[in-house]
Amino acid sequence: MAKYELDMIRHSAAHIMAAAVQKLYPETKFDIGPATADGFYYDFDIPVHLSAEDLEKIEAEMENIVKAKIPFVRKELTRAEAEALLKSKDQPFKLERLADIPGDETITFYECGDFVDLCRGPHVENTGDVGAFKLMSVAGSYFRGNEKNPMLQRIYGIAFPDKKELKAYLLRMEEAKKRDHRKLGKELDLFSISETVGPGLVLWHPRGAYIRNVIETFWRKEHLEHGYDLLYTPHIGRGQLWETSGHLGFYKESMYSPMEIDEIDYYAKPMNCPFHIEVYKSRIRSYRELPCRWAELGTVYRYEKSGVLHGLMRVRGFTQDDAHIICTPEQIESEIKEVLDFCLFIWKTFGFKEIKAYLSTRPAKAVGAPERWELAQKSLVGAINASGLSYEVDEGGGAFYGPKIDLKIKDAIGREWQTSTIQFDFNLPERFNLHYVGADGQQHQPYMVHRALFGSLERFFGILVEHYAGAFPLWLAPIQVRLLPITERQHEYCRAAAAELKKAGFQVDVDERSESIGAKIKDARGLRIPVLAVAGDKEMESNTFAIRTRREDQLGQMDLATFVKKLQFELENKF
C-alpha cells in the first residue's frame, strides 16, 4: 500500500463510508465528512434511525468497496455546473456548503464509483489504500451545529494504515474506558453533577475536595515562590466592563444573561482578565514596579451547549488557574522563559513527562504593531529553544490579538491533552488604555501575557484521574493509609496508631468492619488507597504493622516511628 498522511487516509475512509451509506440507503442527504484527531465522521440525513446492527452493515459494505480498489477521481466544475449537479442529486446540505466557497476558489468534486462528493481533497489513490478501519458509534448532530437546523445522524469511525495500529488503538480505547474520570469519580466518591443543581456544574465531594485543596495549596505556594502575587476578584461585573473588554461584542453567546442590580446590567464573568486589568489601573504604575505577575484561582461561567458537556472536561462553571504578566519590552524575553520553565516544573511534578509545544504566529488580520508581534514571537521561540522542547509552528494560526504557545502533554496511555497556554495580548492593553511611566518620564504601553498552567482545575482533575486511573500518588491521595485490624482485639491499637499518623499530617482511616482481612484488603485496593497497614495479635505484641501497598508489594513489619519516616520521605518527594 502506498504511504499517505493519516489525515488523508481518514478523510478517504469518510468518503468510502458515505459511498456505502448511499448504496444501502439511496435517499440519503449528505453534509460533511472530515478527518478528526481520532479518526473521521460523516453527517447524514438518513430515512432510518441507525442502530449498531446498521453500522455493521455499513462497515461490511465499506469492506466491499475497499476490496474493489475503486479510484478517487478529482474533477473541477464551474459554480453553475456544481449547482446543477447537486440539485440533480437532491443534495440541499451540499448546496449550502457550496455557497460557502468563495467566488475565486476552484470548486472540486471527488468521484468514488457512483458516489460523488463536493470536496477539496486530497484523497488516497484508490479505496484499497485506506488501510484498516472500524465504525465506532452514531450520534445526533444539528446541521452547522445550530439547534434550529435539522438533526442529522453522525457516524464516527477510526482508520489507521494497518491492522496492527488499529488493534493498538482499540486496546487503548478499552483502557481509556476503564480510566474514564466519570466512572472513577463515582466509584471513588470524588465528585458528582446533579441535574437538580444544573448540567455542567460540579459538586466536589470530600475526597475530591481534599485532592483539589492539595493541588491549590501546592499551586499557591509555588506561585509565591516564583514571584507571583495572588489576587481575588468578584464573580460578576458591570456590563460596561465587558463592553470595554470586547466580550459583549465578540463573546456574548457564551455569556449568561445579565442580572439587573440598581438598574444596571451585571454579568457573571466568563474570564478574569478585565478584573486584573482594573487592579493595574487602580493607580499610576512606574516601570520600577514591573513586571506585575498576578495569579488567581478564579471561577468563571460560560454557556456551553448541553450536547458538548462532558464530565469535568467540558463544564459551565470552572476555576481557571489564571495569571497575567504585565511588563516592559526589555523584560518580555526573560518573563516568557520563566513562565515556560514554571509550566514544565508543574507538569513534571504531577507525573507528566512527555510534553510538546505548539507555537501559533501572526495571522493576516491582527491588532498591534508588527514590531511588537516580532518581539513577542521571538521571545516565545527563544523560550521553547531554551527549554529543549520539541515544537510545531502553526504559521498564521495565532489569535488576532497575539501569538501564543500551547503545551500538550501525553498521559499514561499515550493520549495527548492540550493544557498550558502562554498568550500575548495586544488588544486589551489598547482597549483599556494601559500605560506605565518609563525611565524617560513618558507613558508607554506595556506588554500583557495571559497564562494558564492547568487551564482549569476541573479539566485538569479529570485528566489527573484518568492518567493515574484513580490510583493517585501518596501526596495526592484522599486516603493515604488504611489501618486494617484482623480482629476486634486490634481496634484500639489501630485507633491509637491512626491518631499518631494524623498528628504527623497523614490522611488515615481504620477499617473496623467485621469482614475478613482478605475482603478488607480487596476493598482498600478498590479505593486505590496507596498504603495498607495490617495488625493482628502478632503485630500488636511486637508493636508493629505488616505494611503492604495497593499493588500488593509486601514491605514487611515496621514499627510506627519507622513507618512515619517512610511516609514522610515519600510525601516530601511527591511519590
Which terms would index this structure?
575 residues; Threonyl-tRNA Synthetase, Chain A, domain 2; Rossmann fold; five-stranded mixed β-sheet; BirA Bifunctional Protein, domain 2; alpha+beta
Fold and architecture overview:
The chain is of the alpha+beta class and 575 residues long. The protein folds into three domains: 6-175, 2-Layer Sandwich (Threonyl-tRNA Synthetase, Chain A, domain 2); 185-233 and 272-468, BirA Bifunctional Protein, domain 2 (2-Layer Sandwich), CATH 3.30.930.10; 481-572, Rossmann fold (3-Layer(aba) Sandwich). 37% of the residues lie in helices and 25% in strands. It is built from 18 helices and 27 strands. Strands 10-14-15-22-19-18-16-17 form an eight-stranded mixed beta sheet, sandwiched between helices. Strand 8 and strand 9 form a beta hairpin. Helix 3 packs antiparallel against helix 4, helix 6 (181-187) crosses helix 14 (457-468) and helix 11 (332-349) crosses helix 12 (370-387). The protein is globular, with a radius of gyration of 29 Å. The model has no long low-confidence stretch (mean pLDDT 94).
CATH fold-level assignment of the largest domain: BirA Bifunctional Protein, domain 2
**How many strands in all?**
27
Low-confidence stretches: none
State the share of residues found in helices, binned by percent.
25-40%
**How many domains, in number, for the residues?**
3
Just give the CATH class of the largest domain.
Alpha Beta
Strand arrangement, major sheet: 10-14-15-22-19-18-16-17
- Share of β-strand residues: 25-35%
The secondary-structure class comes to alpha+beta
